[in-house]
Amino acid sequence: MDAISQTTETDPARMTASAASALIASRQLSCEELARACLARIARRDGKVRAWLWVDPDHVIRRARELDKLPSKGPLHGIPFGVKDVIDTADYPTTQNSPIYDGARIGRDAACVGIVRGQGALILGKTDTVEFASGGRKALTRNPFNGAHTPGGSSSGSGAAVADFHVPFAFGTQTGGSLIRPASFNGIYALKPSWGLVSREGVRMSSMTLDTVGWYARCVDDLILAASAYRIEADNTPVNVKGLRVGLCVSPVWHQIEPGGEIALQAAAKRLTEAGAIVENLDLPTPFSGLHDAHTAIVNSEGGASFLPEYVNAHALLAPDLRAKVENVLQITRERLLESYTLADSCRPVLDAMFGPSLDVILTPSSAGEAPLGLHTTGDAVFNRMWTLLHAPNVNIPVCRGPANLPVGVTLVGKRLADARLLAIAKAVAPVIDSDPDAGARELWA
Amino acid sequence: MDAISQTTETDPARMTASAASALIASRQLSCEELARACLARIARRDGKVRAWLWVDPDHVIRRARELDKLPSKGPLHGIPFGVKDVIDTADYPTTQNSPIYDGARIGRDAACVGIVRGQGALILGKTDTVEFASGGRKALTRNPFNGAHTPGGSSSGSGAAVADFHVPFAFGTQTGGSLIRPASFNGIYALKPSWGLVSREGVRMSSMTLDTVGWYARCVDDLILAASAYRIEADNTPVNVKGLRVGLCVSPVWHQIEPGGEIALQAAAKRLTEAGAIVENLDLPTPFSGLHDAHTAIVNSEGGASFLPEYVNAHALLAPDLRAKVENVLQITRERLLESYTLADSCRPVLDAMFGPSLDVILTPSSAGEAPLGLHTTGDAVFNRMWTLLHAPNVNIPVCRGPANLPVGVTLVGKRLADARLLAIAKAVAPVIDSDPDAGARELWA
Fold first, then answer.
1. pLDDT at B443
2. From CA B19, how far away is CA B248, in angstroms rounded?
3. For residue A58, what is the domain's CATH number?
4. ipTM over 0.90
5. How many domains, in total, are found in chain A?
6. What residues in A contact B338, CB-CB < 8 Å?
7. Which of B306, B312, B352 sits opposite A201 (nearest CB)?
8. For residue B130, which of A405, B154, B212, B238 is within the disulfide window of CB 3.0 to 4.6 Å?
């Protein structure tokens, strides 16, 4: 699904951002045409997929026309973005899928939104999310591959909107596995950048240590395109899959793997080996096995501070599982929290140091398996939490379908702050391990 | 300056929050009377002190009357707070002292504000600040003790407003020394809580690793009162100054001390020793001497991500020193940033472990000396940066006047997350080391 083949598509909504960007730059496609194509797709599909909370077509068209009048602001000029509704936007409400903030308008873009808007991006609307990206209510969004299944969460609407060709880009956030897991479930690409590279200003806070903003796209080139807006400059050092040193990490929670996740990880490893990569098992040092529980302690303790405003001001409307964080129902002591911080802080440089002559990238599951049946769940972040806590960059790459014919991906993990290198590796690796033959042209359930 | 002596004051604006709270609870003082007293003080003084950017007296009186009609929401009911103008408020603009956000209204309280407002606090207005609490323009605020001197920064207006009896409480933020240094320069108390205990949601982000919300007050009891709103529960285990184990830490930057800072530290140590405390020199392990430079690397690198939205959208209006962060003028490499993270991460548990049978609290300078002359500077955070990076709780306690007859304080440092214990120690220690004889009744320059 590279940029060139996409230009042969007649529906601009199905183009990658990179392909559309090239056509807009050469005046073969207008911002308005692209916007209308995305809006038409949403109009046709979102009654079923329910990815969006707020889209104002008239407003979007006006903005697109304005962009068509302006000189280009760069490669994102006119490119549509969806925004998870825990992220503030100047022109739409930010409800956080909470009744407490029903219809709430802030009037200021979150940093991540303002940065791409200032470079010409077209903010299409707001996508449904698990309440506060943390607990409480689920999104209404359905998996585009099978409406009986969840698209994952908490970035439910963003993942489904990109998979279902509503937008080429959407922002999500990850505290546990809220970016990578929906990418796996929806057969798309995602970047969870290194902690600190993308400002979280204007994004609902859940955990100071864990919250990370990232984005979805339908190819690695697009992930790189969006990254460049955040000054994560493209790494053009050649990557040869032949000889690439890949550490296969089944992770300390491998006992929770499901058939779909196992098939995807094995398929990715096999394809990489066949392409000449050197795939070797990577055993993490023993202390890493404590990171999963450390994540639990941190996310619950820090959540207590994060949800205190709603606990004080809107107690009855705050979901019980979020009230439980404020009340410290898990009885996490200060000493336990300090131990958790210290464990994570000490593991991060150990992970950093693994990368070098004997390791280019880590390959690990993105999800236990395929998207679970039902909308009462968004699946489990069990395979993501450790990497979030380690602050390392993660990319999801789709691999194959599982037993239920739903997509499953794998995660590539890079060295902290070496996001550009990870993206370059992902770009080389993706054509090898992403086997979905009809990804660009697929017609999803109707 | 304890609560009881304050109740003898006739001007409610000079009362501590604890004293006013007791009178409001017993209906001897109305919320409106307290608000009017604060507004009168502001009307009389702020033409000179210039602590405030936004105060709407009519709005404040309406809110106060509303609070007088309501049943008490707790000990903060009717207690006025000033809010540093990098912190969002539902009812005032948040300009961040930047021309980019001149008059900008958000319509939503930052977490720290919503939490006290929901417990009855009266938000009085917004206080002047260094631009974005980070660089660029200084506040117009003058030091209440001598208008020719800075009140410090970046929480300039908040520090001066509390010192000059405009409000009993004001919020500030600290990334380097922006809470503790103004407290030292203005002869007041401040708590910089442990990182993570108080949500930063809705507070202008400058550095994800460093930014911390805290508050000013005119006594330790008031610091404790505000802390309780954030579920930092009072620690009522008795503290006996006799036998208290105090580690005197001149810090790795002692060569930058000035006469005022040295006098204050020595006076505090001497008074504690005379009161029976066991004051012994505390030598920090060698790696701690790298923390100051690590702070520089982190604050500049993370600032690059934080100021990118303005760099993209309002380049000409962003101050050159903030543009320099985005442009990485200091040429901080990723490896240098990782080393800085790792150093800080490894020092934190070492500091935690120092506390125990042989150490109750650390005593260290709050500022190099007295407030410098002129409003072109806010002084230097050199004595604060290390502690901010260590995420440990800090309390400033006023000690004495320096050679220029301006206040100088000292910092008490506690174990991470043991803020309640630190506050209990500060309460016991303050009467011993705070010698300003006329603190409660002082009339400042007119």
1. 61
2. 33
3. 3.90.1300.10
4. yes
5. 1
6. 349, 352, 416-417
7. B306
8. B154
